[in-house]
Amino acid sequence: MEARSSRRQRSAPTINDVAKHAGVSPMTVSRVINGEQVVRAATKEKVEAAIAALNYSPSAAARSLAGGDETRIGLLYSNPSASYLSEFLVGSLDQSSRAGIDLVVEKWDEQTAVKAVVDHLVRGRIDGVVLPPPLCDHEAMIDALREAGIPAVVVATGHAPASLAAVSIDDRGAAYEMTRHLIGLGHNRIGFIKGHPNLSASEERYQGYIRALGEAGIALDDALVEQGFFTYRSGLDAAEHILARDNPPTAIFASNDDMAAATVAIAHRNGLDVPGDLTVCGFDDTSLATTIWPELTTIRQPISAMSRAAVDLLVRHIKGRRAQSEDGPPHMLLDYELVRRQSDAAPRLRPKHKGRK
To answer: Hey, which of 134, 165, 236, 270 has its CA 20 to 30 A from 317?
Structure first.
């Protein structure tokens, strides 16, 4: 991991560097950073990828908070879903630009010692850190940041620590609502693909699924539940196992859109029509949900809004520390929404698609 100065230097990437890397104009980069809606989705993704690749930290005109000090916050990420990370990054960049602070984007992987990454943040004079999933539940990282005196905000955790600011949704309630939706369509054999076990929200979503089945008088069938890891690849494996059962489900609810998209792919490979033969639903409502066919019915988690709220909470906390007027860490619960598209339907009553194997 490369160390960087706490101030911009000539060697630091500029907006022109980002533009050149993405093959766009500096104005387009600026529009993406500021969250303007006039940029096409494909162009926005190229710019966001360039920002992440170059570790670009947008320079805003305003440079001061309480006391006139420059403020630098870090976004430390380790997320297997590119779609989720892209939306999270957009919200973080937007709010950082509005607040007039520097945002330093850092990737962490398990091959790097926790102490090493925290020491790097200390050397970079980072004032606070935003921790999206799965780092929102990484106890060793949270403890190390606390010991180093670096405040953090956790995002999308299923169990927010009392000592940290947090932004999340009601994951259990959202999964319960989606499962109830499927039951309401007439499905009583509903498969479920769990999220990564290193994230507490995964268990919350599973418990919401179980609760909805129980209230409807539907027995939990462990044969219809598979472990996933929030990756497309894990979704392929999980869906293949579920659909290979002697009595397969008529619907599968995956814990994120990546795994739901993989389920659609496996269904098509098996000659199944979605949603005629198999209903598939996801979670998050990332861009992937509307770039596959059929478009996914999913739970809209306001990822960009959550990241903006996290940056805002962190900046306010830093200002409070400088002014020696800190309040207790706030926990924000944002609204979710069930978004219905083309991937769900009532169970097929007529003979199944002739192409099914």
So the answer is: 134
> pLDDT grade, residue 350 (50/70/90)?
low
Q: Which CATH number fits domain 171-300: 3.90.1150.10, 3.40.50.1820, 3.40.50.2300, 3.40.640.10?
A: 3.40.50.2300
Question: Domain coordinates of the chain in residue numbers?
Answer: 15-169+302-326, 171-300
CATH for the stretch 15-169+302-326: 3.40.50.2300
Torsion of CA 317, 336, 211, 220, to 10 degrees: -110
CA distance 295 to 340: 9
* Same fold flag, 15-169+302-326 and 171-300: yes
pTM (predicted TM-score): 0.78
For residue 314 the two structure tokens come to: 């962190």
pLDDT of residue 57: 67
CB of 95 within 8 A of CB of 89? no
